[in-house]
Amino acid sequence: MKRLISASILMFALSVQTVVAQSDAKTGWTFGVLPSVAYDADLGFQYGALTNLYYFGDGSTYPEYLHSIYAEVNRTTKKNGLFRLNLESRALVPGLLISSDISYMPDEMCDFSGFNGHQAVFNANWADDSKADYRSRAFYKYRRGLFRSIIDIQGDISGNLNWNAGAGLLVFNADHVNIDKLNRGQSDEKKLPDIDLLFDKYQQWGLIDSCETRTGAYPYIHGGVSYDSRNVTAAPSAGIWADAFLTYTAAFGSLSRFNSLKFNADFRHYMALGTPVAVLAYRLSAQLTLAGQTPFYMASQHNVLNMKRAIYESLGGSSSLRGITRNRIVSDGFALANIELRLRLVKFDIGTSHFYIATNPFVDAGMVLQPVDIDEQQVRLAAETTDDNADDYFDFSGSVYRPHFSGGAGLKVAMNENFILSVDWATPFSSGDSGKKSNIYVKMGYLF
Known about the structure:
mainly beta; globular
């Protein structure tokens, strides 16, 4: 917690120093160059650097910007990395919102706790080296690499109704955790044992195909419509954002069976409660597989029309169900809901820049809509061949459609409406959804 508080103070202080040096933070170019210091309960303590440049032109569109350039390089203490460049423009081509993103995200300890949420038993003791039945801190992990390159375009249809189209390339690699690499420089008591992890067992039981552990390239296209009546983009106090779109993902060679068509629908509503300083905001979202199959590492990805965050994963973690372990619910289709009360506590100016501090108590919920097909009898027989008891890994007695819940509260420090430092504390409502009673995330911006 001390590291978290220090990181928040450092980021806020450096933001202030950068802005004071600007002659006018509401016109022309404004920027912040900060250490990329954050904390995520799933990813660990983050260190690196980021910069975000905004161009407001003559200021007539403020707080909306005309151009945004965002770059970030970071690593985390849990062996996750990010190398990202994101560009967005509302003025490059009149009438079009154009955004592009190129990123590389190596993750030595990517979370994997099985398929179908509650149907996959999550035994936190197996990953806790202080417990008698400890197996490995990496038991619910695998090694994942992700390269992403995308471009998205939005144009007007009529009024607040827009058309959206985009294309991209995703390159995934999945493998066993590199135990030797992670053990370098560690004391004997901290070294990870070289044992079969859940990722390995799923392969042995036929739940993950061998071709899913090779590098796979997946070009995709998507298109649909969106409705946007928000009064501002970064922290709306009124309006609706809604979209519906299809995503077709192609695959080739041994991965050709992973061609798929998915449908997404999202609805976000922002309502001022008598005053713009108190806003009720909620998001409803669903993703369904209409045709084809999806490799397990893509089943955890949440498709979006415009890439605002480094990655959108569902369900579980800082981008979906705060307080619940990242990727806790992996399925072919899911539903997601977030609701929060955003309260601006205090406003103040430093130089020509505007700041506010806010809080946001929230509740998150998610559930499986399309479960991954698991043959109970086949899995029981397969588990016997590896001297495992299937009941230690699967709960076939309950409903796979039971929702998962979490809740908590956040603190926001915002500069010029767009640059928002976010600290969220959250707890899962079910002990089987996380190895911790509470989790903390330090990020940029509101969740939605």
